[in-house]
Specification:
372 residues; alpha/beta; DNA polymerase, domain 1; TIM Barrel; two-stranded antiparallel sheet
């Protein structure tokens, strides 16, 4: 399987201009080299890094340690504006904030900040649109526009970090503790930029945000070669596999990439990831009424996962579907959901039902952008 070519649908349209180069696209040594290219002292790159990643400053006038005569050049060269907020919607008494961003070329993406009593999580997009074409997903219906750059991904997290640090979210000043790559796009189809973003998020300040890799989750619909590549990166992020069905017949319909990489091949790659990284894999399973929520499918899912041993390598995260307006795909009946959980747990599978936030603000990825 490792030798199979990735599907053509994953390639973004050609001919688009690239996002402007940003400090977050570069490692600290690369930033210092770029400063020299601009005829500036290398240490200015570190000063800018402190402002961006540590102080979370976005106003050049606050960068008072930079010479006024060089400030404009430094900011233009390293901190170009990557995205503009079009709308921010709030739910859960302000602790859930969904932002619709316009990128430099007009593409629209979304991010969500969710604050809990013990943590603050950013859900970020990795692509404008998505080429995976899952029929129940709002993003998948619009197709893929383009890959996002490393800096565009990082900027979503930094924007959330600024909001928390400035006390704009109820609960007082705070910091981003978790990042989930579960917004718009298939993260592993934009592998280089996503890994770049993960490295920037986890690099010690001022090279990056200094987050723990264990607080980062990268999701995928099952790009088997990329799952294996991720396992070799040496970054202990959590892998989340969006499975949604335990049998090939249904998964071929729900997750079209399954026609390339079957349930068995995909789950095996996830197990290999867990085995190599010693990190438990999360199986994401959107519960859809009358589609994939039958009791026998719960039994089959447990059997598929248990076939790789019972050492606790996997956790199932059931997701009540946030339906697209006018779609046939709707959330499961709560009684069916409870029975699904009961059957998984009866077979020893650790299971939770996701706390779904933001339903009233088009919380599912792609819904707000689609309306816009």
């Amino acid at each position: 399987m490792a030798g199979r070519a990735l599907p053509l649908v994953m390639s973004p349209p050609r001919g688009r201009a690239k996002p402007p180069r940003h400090l977050a696209d570069l490692s600290l040594p690369e930033r210092q080299e770029a400063a020299k290219e601009l005829g500036l002292p290398a240490f200015r790159a570190k000063q800018l890094s402190v402002h961006y990643f540590e102080r979370l400053v976005d106003d050049p006038e606050q960068m008072t340690d930079l010479p006024a005569v060089q400030r404009a050049d430094l900011v233009a060269g390293f901190l170009p504006e990557l995205m503009t907020s079009l709308r921010t919607l709030e739910a859960d008494k302000g602790t859930t904030r969904k932002t619709l961003w316009k990128l430099f070329d007009g593409a629209l993406v979304e991010s969500v900040l969710m604050r809990y009593p013990d943590r603050a999580t950013m859900c970020v997009s990795s692509q404008a649109g998505c080429g995976m074409a899952c029929p129940f997903c709002a993003t998948g219906q619009g197709g893929l526009q383009r890959n996002m750059s490393t800096a565009e991904i990082v900027e979503q997290v930094v924007a959330g970090a600024r909001s928390l640090a400035r006390g704009e979210v109820p609960g007082g000043p705070g910091r981003v503790s978790n990042v989930v790559f579960m917004g718009m796009g298939e993260p592993l189809a934009n592998y280089k930029a996503v890994i770049g973003a993960v490295r920037r998020l986890t690099a010690p300040a001022p090279d990056g945000l200094g987050m723990s890799a264990r607080g980062i989750t990268v999701s995928t619909v099952g790009l088997v070669p990329r799952i294996r590549q991720l396992a070799d990166e040496g970054i202990p992020v959590t892998l989340a596999l969006s499975l949604h069905a335990p049998d090939d017949e249904l998964r071929n319909e729900l997750v079209p990439i399954n026609t390339r990489f079957s349930v068995a091949e995909t789950v095996e790659a996830a197990w290999e990831y867990a085995h190599k990284t010693k990190r438990r894999v999360s199986i994401e399973y959107a519960m859809m009424r009358g589609i994939n929520d039958q009791a026998w499918r719960a039994d089959l899912l447990a059997d598929v996962l248990n076939s790789y041993g019972d050492w606790g390598w996997v956790h199932v995260n059931l997701i009540p579907l946030n339906p697209i307006e006018g779609s046939k795909w709707t959330a499961s009946d709560p009684a069916d959901e409870r029975e699904f959980v009961r059957r998984l747990e009866a077979k020893g599978i650790s299971t939770t039902v996701r706390d779904t936030r933001g339903r009233e603000i088009d919380g599912a990825c792609g819904q707000l952008a689609a309306k816009e």
